[in-house]
Design brief:
- By secondary structure, this protein is mainly α.
- The protein has one domain.
- Helices cover about 90% and strands about 0% of the residues.
- It contains eight helices and no strands.
- Helix 1 packs across helix 5 and helix 3 crosses helix 6.
- The protein starts with a helix and ends with a helix.
- About 45% of the residues are buried.
């Protein structure tokens, strides 16, 4: 696990050097952005929306019983922005797009396409990793912002239909509870999670050896490792900014 992490960090800095040299084209980045975040957006937003409605169902009546129903919106907004939207969206993108990245790179490895790139004096890590890492770092925060908005709206709908909480009171508490710091940290999480997803999954694919059966094995491993590293990254970021 530690050696794999070291390899991920090494590949990340190799990709940064590749980007710094100006070898990356906008077209490549846009294509990867569409593949990583746009194609995963629907499942990520659906998961966050369902999570927000479940939370609203659980807390709305409890808040009403204690006379604190006016704070339902603020509670859900803070939960969405600080943790649920960035975390759930990243896990969904990792499961959907991260495994696809691993499968693509692994397939190139076992079919010797990467060896062919090396013969052309092109750095395969920079060539394959850089556009994916940059695209994920740019677009995952965008999905996170949309997920936060969808999550807050989901809570509003449930609060209205379960405890008849007026949307104005709900949104007023959202406005009162949200702090700019939370939004900035959630965006930072999106960037960090995007880098983790692209780097971990591409590295797992790059290390694949064997044939077609090993591509499937690597894809499964990438999903597991991506989840673990995302949770670790989430814990570290929370530890730095909220303690």
């Amino acid at each position: 696990m530690i050696s794999f992490l070291g390899k991920c960090v090494e590949n990340f800095f190799t990709s940064l050097r590749y980007i710094k040299k100006g070898n990356l084209t906008i077209k490549e980045t846009i294509e990867q952005a569409a593949s990583i975040s746009y194609d995963s957006m629907s499942i990520a937003l659906t998961i966050v929306f369902i999570a927000s409605t479940v939370i609203a169902l659980q807390i709305s009546k409890q808040f009403l019983m204690s006379g604190a129903e006016a704070y339902v919106g603020g509670f859900i907004a803070v939960a969405m922005i600080r943790e649920i939207a960035p975390g759930f969206a990243a896990l969904a993108i990792g499961a959907r797009a991260g495994t696809a990245v691993c499968a693509q790179v692994a397939n190139m490895q076992v079919t010797e396409q990467i060896d062919a790139i090396k013969t052309l004096k092109v750095d395969p890590v920079g060539y394959y990793f850089a556009p994916r890492i940059l695209a994920a770092a740019i677009t995952v925060p965008m999905v996170v912002i949309l997920a936060e908005l969808i999550g807050i709206i989901g809570g509003l709908i449930i609060a209205y239909f379960t405890i008849d909480l007026h949307p104005y009171r709900y949104l007023n508490s959202v406005w009162l509870f949200i702090q700019p710091k939370d939004i900035y940290i959630s965006l930072f999480k999106g960037i960090a999670f995007g880098i983790v997803i692209a780097c971990v999954c591409a590295t797992q694919g790059y290390l694949t050896k064997g044939g077609a059966a090993d591509v499937g094995i690597s894809t499964t491993k990438s999903a597991i490792k991506c989840t673990i590293y995302l949770l670790i990254a989430d814990f570290i970021i929370n530890l730095i900014f909220y303690i």
